[in-house]
């Protein structure tokens, strides 16, 4: 195609502005044609060997950062390119699966460690609670203290009544009963 354009441009070269316009049109047509071919190839369905080979060569070129005219690429057939393409995909997926399984294993280990720690804490708390219950059961509870029956309280109350009688008269507290249990 490039040769066709060269031959057209060499034939149309003459002198003057008309020749320059003609050459410019040919170059624009060439650029537009090449771009149209590239766009068509890029969007072509991969339903035949030719389109598949174009796609795989383009992929290889992009993957290995080599030009499409690299002599090494020309040595590859369709089967070789397909193998490289799928090999790269499968290895990438296998690496991702391995990475995910490692992450899953790490997460499971962390979760197990957390559950083991929580279980150990619960056991400790249960043992402490059992010790407290056992110690409370072994202690004999003291009988409830009745402040009215306490001899010190009775003594204090009698002293207070005596002081009040001295200040307020002998009949103070006659109407007070000291039997609070009634």
Question: How does the SSE layout of this entry go?
Answer:
Elements: H1 2-12, H2 17-42, H3 49-64, H4 71-75, H5 78-138, H6 151-168
Task: Walk me through what this model shows.
- The radius of gyration is 52 Å and the shape is rod-shaped.
- It contains 6 helices and no strands.
- Helix 1 (2-12) packs antiparallel against helix 2 and helix 3 (49-64) crosses helix 5 (78-138).
- The longest helix is centred in the middle third of the chain and has 61 residues, at 78-138.
- It starts with a helix and ends in a 14-residue tail after the last helix.
- It has 2 domains: 1-43; 48-139.
- By secondary structure, it is an all-alpha fold.
- Helix content is 75%, strand content 0%.
What attributes does this structure have?
2 domains, single chain, 75% helix, 6 helices, mainly alpha, 182 residues
Q: What structural class is derived from the secondary structure elements?
A: mainly alpha
List how many beta strands DSSP finds: 0
- General shape: rod-shaped
Order of helices and strands: HHHHHH
Largest sheet features: none
| Beta-strand residue percentage | under 5%
Overall average residue pLDDT: 81
Radius of gyration using CA atoms only: 52 Å
Unreliable residue stretches: 1-14
Percent range of helical residues: over 70%
Terminal-residue CA separation:
126 Å
Tally of individual domains: 2
Q: What is the count of helical runs? A: 6
């Amino acid at each position: 195609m490039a040769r066709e354009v060269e031959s057209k441009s060499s034939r149309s070269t003459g002198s003057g502005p008309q020749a320059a316009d003609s050459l410019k049109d040919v170059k624009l047509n060439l650029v537009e044609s090449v771009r149209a071919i590239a766009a068509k190839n890029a969007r072509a369905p991969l339903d035949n060997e030719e389109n598949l080979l174009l796609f795989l060569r383009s992929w290889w070129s992009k993957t290995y950062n080599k030009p499409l005219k690299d002599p090494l690429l020309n040595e590859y057939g369709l089967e070789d390119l397909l193998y490289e393409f799928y090999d790269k995909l499968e290895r990438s997926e296998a690496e991702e699966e391995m990475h995910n399984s490692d992450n899953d294993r790490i997460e499971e280990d962390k979760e197990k460690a957390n559950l083991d720690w929580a279980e150990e804490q619960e056991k400790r708390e249960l043992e402490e609670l059992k010790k407290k219950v056992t110690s409370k059961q072994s202690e004999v509870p003291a009988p409830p203290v009745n402040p009215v029956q306490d001899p010190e309280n009775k003594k204090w109350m009698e002293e207070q009544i005596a002081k009040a009688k001295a200040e307020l008269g002998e009949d103070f507290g006659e109407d007070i009963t000291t039997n609070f249990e009634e």
